[in-house]
Amino acid sequence: xxxxxxxxxxxxxxxxxxxxxxxxxxxxxxxxxxxxxxxxxxxxxxxxxxxxxxxxxxxxxxxxxxxxxxxxxxxxxxxxxxxxxxxxxxxxxxxxxxxxxxxxxxxxxxxxxxxxxxxxxxxxxxxxxxxxxxxxxxxxxxxxxxxxxxxxxxxxxxxxxxxxxxxxxxxxxxx
Length: 175
Known about the structure:
- By secondary structure, the chain is an all-alpha fold.
- It is built from nine helices and no strands.
- The longest helix has 21 residues, at about 45-65.
- It is elongated, with a radius of gyration of 18 Å.
- About 35% of the residues are buried.
């Protein structure tokens, strides 16, 4: 229960949060990570904690989107958008936010988000080393998936020619 080893508290916090996250208890994992980060603001591994917190938020949002709970996705984004998600460069969080807006019937906002995510994804596909690293750490949507989602949003808004163009764009990029 106690150890004199330097950094053992940090190690156990990260290990416990990983276990909680793996079993889907994202709120408890987030609480532990955030509490440790706030009580140890000068920790050597601040970036690791920030990354783990953002990963847990993305995993939580992914699970909520897959479960059809778009309201909680929007609430989670609102709760953390000015703290842990502010200045986050994760592409998947924006994609999940777009899916939540789509499920809420806010097709114009979802389409705007999908376009932004598609542009970020296209830039990423040019930087292969970064793409490989992000594929490991994020839930990256494929370019074809994004084009299909954009087309669906255009159809919902009765912008059929733009939807058709988005469908034609499928396959132009690489997934």
